[in-house]
Design the sequence.
């Protein structure tokens, strides 16, 4: 006899750890596909031999499409009135997860001897195919948080566990992959990257299926039989997003994080290749930065209930700014002492980013509610997709711009893992500045723009609940 399921007052399975673990599995699945993205620059410039400036241009091109693709998919999901057996968001995630089994590996087809034009086509086509499936899975996944529960504590818990899923999904490849994909000369081995991408695609698919099976939708957004709804208007939806101050604030913070941290990925690799001469340890060192997130995550729900999401994120942004300043001014030397100082700065930075990332998705869930509160429509897919649109612009602009700066500072792709010391030293300061820029963007978005403090959020929830009760 199976275990008895406890139901809430509305007849849904009561929110529990099962929901948290299922939602965490979804971000783990996303990151099994996304984790290797930081390797693209090194793979294509060092292994495939693509000119760095050409790569920067192509990356900006595909990321522009990547960004445009998100609101298109989001609007399609919002406009979809088809009745699915479970939920339309879960159905789209299922479709996307199938393609992601192999799509990630298409970005790492190891043919360094191919003609230059063939390489360009392989890169663009592989990225576009991967991005299409990733968007189909990721956009509805991000929207799900606001549908699993209305409760502020539940959402904080889901956001925290999403961070755990992301953390594990990033941490495992971060630690293991450098030992696998780099040889003893600190050069990347493309065939190993391709095989790793295939394995990660399979693991991601399994994680998505677990999430789909164990997710309970408690916030009713499905169209009832015979119900007439106004025709979906994407222009109006986009206008609503621009007027959605919490969504804009959270998006500015995320853009800064991606411009700084995603942009810094290639520079960090060169830093460990040619400055610290320890590229295989880069993942282990980066893993140290996850410690503050691990420590904070179990406390997130209680602290959000007590202090509020904006208030906690503000503290995190201040810690990140302090870390960025320290990373610029402290003597990070090319030895183990320098590595230790680097790790210390990373720990402070990760504490700030960890506090923000732990509550960030709960903040976006509230931003979706804010859209309904102010404009009368939920538009989960569009609000999240527009957020994702600007994040992905930053993900493209950041690495492209940083690669251009790296070339300007002397980076030569033909030298692979053996850049001259002056270049390596330039990477040391470039990384520090990029982290500081990320922290400043986060501070501006969360402190100066995002306007849902604890008191305002409580008022919004109360008024929405009264509105829903009246509508019934």
Sequence:
């Amino acid at each position: 006899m199976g275990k008895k399921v406890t139901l809430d007052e509305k007849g849904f399975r009561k929110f529990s750890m099962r929901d948290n673990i299922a939602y965490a599995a979804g971000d783990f699945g996303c990151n099994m596909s996304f984790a290797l993205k930081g390797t693209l620059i090194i793979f294509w410039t060092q292994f495939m031999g693509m000119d760095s400036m050409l790569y920067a241009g192509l990356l900006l091109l595909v990321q522009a499409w990547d960004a445009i693709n998100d609101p298109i998919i989001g609007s399609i999901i919002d406009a979809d009135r088809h009745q699915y057996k479970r939920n339309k968001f879960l159905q789209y995630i299922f479709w996307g997860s199938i393609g992601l089994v192999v799509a990630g590996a298409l970005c790492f087809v190891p043919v360094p001897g191919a003609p230059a034009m063939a390489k360009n086509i392989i890169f663009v086509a592989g990225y576009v195919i991967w991005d299409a499936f990733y968007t189909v899975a990721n956009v509805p996944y991000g929207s799900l948080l606001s549908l699993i529960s209305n409760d502020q504590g539940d959402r904080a818990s889901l956001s925290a566990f999403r961070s755990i899923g992301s953390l594990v999904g990033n941490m495992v490849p971060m630690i293991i992959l450098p030992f696998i994909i780099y040889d003893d000369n600190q050069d990347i081995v493309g065939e190993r990257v391709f095989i790793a991408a295939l394995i990660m695609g399979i693991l991601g698919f399994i994680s998505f299926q677990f999430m789909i099976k164990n997710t309970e939708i408690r916030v009713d957004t499905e169209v009832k039989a015979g119900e007439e709804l106004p025709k979906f208007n994407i222009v109006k939806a986009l206008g609503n997003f621009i007027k959605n101050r919490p969504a804009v604030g959270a998006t500015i913070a995320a853009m800064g994080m991606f411009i700084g941290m995603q942009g810094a990925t290639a520079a960090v690799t060169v830093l460990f290749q040619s400055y610290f001469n320890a590229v295989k340890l880069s993942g282990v060192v980066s893993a140290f930065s996850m410690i503050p997130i691990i420590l904070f995550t179990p406390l997130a729900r209680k602290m959000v209930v007590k202090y509020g999401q904006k208030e906690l994120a503000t503290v995190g942004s201040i810690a990140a700014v302090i870390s960025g300043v320290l990373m610029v001014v402290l003597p990070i030397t090319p030895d183990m002492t320098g590595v230790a100082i680097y790790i210390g700065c990373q720990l402070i930075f990760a504490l700030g980013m960890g506090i923000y990332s732990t509550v960030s998705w709960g903040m976006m869930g509230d931003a979706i509610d804010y859209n309904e509160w102010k404009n009368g429509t939920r538009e989960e897919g569009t609000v999240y997709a527009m957020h994702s649109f600007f994040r992905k612009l930053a993900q493209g602009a950041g690495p492209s711009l940083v690669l251009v700066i790296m070339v300007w500072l002397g980076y030569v792709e033909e030298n692979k893992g053996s850049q001259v010391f002056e270049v390596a030293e330039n990477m040391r300061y470039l990384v520090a500045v990029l982290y500081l820029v990320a922290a400043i963007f986060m501070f501006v978005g969360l402190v100066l723009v995002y306007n849902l403090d604890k008191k305002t959020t409580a008022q919004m929830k109360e008024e929405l609940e009264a509105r829903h009760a009246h509508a019934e």
